[in-house]
Amino acid sequence: MLPEIFFSSLLERVDDVVWAVGCPDLQLEYLNPAAAVILGRPVRAFEEDPDLWLTIVHPDDREAVAASHDHLLQEGEVERRYRILRPGGETVWMYDRAWLMRDSDGQPLRLFGIAREVTSEMLERQRLNSTLQLHRRFLESALDPIFVVKVESDDTFVFRYNNPAHRQQTGISLEMIRHQTPDALLDKAQAAAVKAHYRECVQLKRPIQYEERLALPAGERDWQTQLVPVEDSAGRVVELVGVARDITPLKQAERQSRDAFEALDQLGQQLPGFIYQYLLSPSGEGRFLYASRRSIAIYGATPDELARSDTAAFNVIHPDDRESVRAAVEVSAATLSHWHCEYRVRHPRGHELWAEGLATPERLEGGSVLWHGYIADVSERKRLQLELEASEARFRRLATVDMLTGAPNRRCFIDCLEGELARMKRHGGKACLVMFDADHFKRINDTFGHAAGDQVLKALVYVGEQWLRGSDVLGRLGGEEFAILMPETDYQGALALSERFRRAVADLLVDAGERVVQVTVSLGVVALRAQDSPDSALERADRMLYRAKALGRNRTCGERDRASE
Ligand SMILES: Nc1nc2c(ncn2[C@@H]2O[C@H](COP(=O)(O)OP(=O)(O)OP(=O)(O)O)[C@@H](O)[C@H]2O)c(=O)[nH]1
Fold first, then answer.
1. Ligand 1: which residue has its CA nearest to atom 6?
2. What is the pTM of this model?
């Protein structure tokens, strides 16, 4: 057992006020020296005046202190905070714990206690309270939805508060949210996602921002939340303050434009070509701001490749067409006129195709030009077009050439005759027309057969090509009837040429299978007159031919011969 002197010398040394008063008169029994320092009055003053203690209590706290005294007598223990007025008028805060000691009969014997000066602590607490008040007022009036989460452990989060804006926009009242965990408030998946964000913020110890879609009492909405960690003095995150923003309309617009874009993209895939936006900078650098995915089928380049540069597009254009495409782009940029080109593409996969591009340009601020356009694979159309052109050429040939003999047909010959007459009208000059006809051709057909007759007709044209001049035109007018146009030829020349031809035919032996066929021709020669029409000229020549026939065939008759007869 320690001697009493030990306790008294211990009490003499403690920095807190230690006191004891007797019951029931409350006469001071003990007050340690620290009291003189803290209360600003000598211990003796308290010994002389038992009421001094209550009079130095701040008037505002006196009633509460008196009440606590009664409480102490009843309960045997009390804890209280009150202010003391020092002699200089200074106020200090005391934290006082007091107990009641009873005698063996249970009667109150003594009150004693320890009081500590807690002024700085109380001021700090007041400051904190007023700050909290301020925060609360701010939260209450803030237009943004705000909520506060207490961090109990790494995985336990408890909602403490949500402001009126949050209550109104989420439909969650303060009563609903307070003391609730995310698991109690949200469905399982949403709670897990929310907790993952809270955990991340606790671990990073810095504000984070995230977007989430939550089904809350006010409906399913998209939120953008900024989460701010609040640390205690030890640096532990104790609270999270969330500031949420309802971004449902924004997200909806985003979804709509994405849907529209996807629809466009889908549509783009159905087209035989690709739609695009092509941007040409003032320095001449071009790239595709947008291209639908069928760019791969036409240029062998993905929309991403085209977005970087237009090189992948121009490189695959056929070298013979590349410059004209570039030039057309430049003209379109300079004049802001529509761009329309057809060109060949050497696809990186090895095949060649025809592309047709159409685009409308617009000039942007800063001088760039932006085209909105469409490039299609028109290979099939081009193939058909080329085929059509070829068959048209074939038909044109068919329309001008006699298929049996290869000589110009009647229509073509009359065209030539018409051209020659027109030339004569303009420039004068001489030209002659000869008509000839195989003699007794029916007999040849009948005797040797139709095929032999055909061979004879071909042979007549062949001989004509041999004996006539390059400028003469031998045409088949129909059946076994032919005509020769002799430009730049006078009448005598034409007669001589005709005779030469007649003799060559008469000397001809036509190989008709097993037999050899001989044939003669009769010819009618006229000099063309500038006032002639093709019909009138042919009619005159036909008359001469008829005459040659009438005179016994295998002969040449000329108009002037008749006139002279
Ligand atoms: N093999 C063949 N015969 C033809 C062709 N075109 C017409 N003919 C025949 O040519 C014959 C012409 O006979 P005609 O008009 O009576 O005259 P022709 O027998 O030559 O008697 P002339 O002219 O008076 O000497 C007919 O029998 C026709 O069928 C043809 O392309 N090939």
1. 479
2. 0.41
